[in-house]
Amino acid sequence: MTNSPDEFDLxxxxxxxxxxxxxxxxxxxxxxxxxxxxxxxQIKTARRVAQDDEGSLGSKRSLRALEGEYQRMxxxxxxxxxxxxxRLVDADEKKRIVAKSKKGDMADFAGRMxxxxxxxxxxxxxxxxxxxxxxxxxxxxxxxxxxxxxQADMPSVSxxxxxxxxxxxxxxx
Length: 173
Description:
The chain is mainly alpha-helical and about 170 residues long. The protein folds into two domains: about 20-25 and about 80-150, no CATH class; about 30-80. The chain is about 55% helix and about 10% strand. The protein has seven helices and three strands, in the order H-E-H-H-E-H-H-E-H-H. Helix 2 (about 30-50) runs antiparallel to helix 3, helix 4 runs antiparallel to helix 5 and helix 5 (about 105-115) packs across helix 6. The model has no long low-confidence stretch (mean pLDDT about 90).
């Protein structure tokens, strides 16, 4: 694409506009974190015992068993993840949702609104409400935060999570 005003195709650019989308991961089994916390404490203790026992066979077996259980539970937690992809509901779509909603029924409106906003996994209004009412408050707040950000924030990309390079090319030398 060129920046020259004479060559710039505004119509083409406008046709390519997409609505903002965000994603957030929620977990079906956040209760597993308590088990992982306890296993972590047991593993740390078993490591100290294994060191003190100069690596006796029994303490090594116990440590391996605990580490195996930790890995199994961590995988179970990871497997319970659901990434929800949200898309901005534009003004025209909101008008259609309002028109279809039962007058005065906020739950119906909310279900339709969330159903329109959640693009993956595909959900019905009832499913959207069931999902959002079943997750804990912290996870619900994370979903709501992403939804609100789409409504209020300018689209931007953060690379803060990327490792910083060093040396001549990066200008940090």
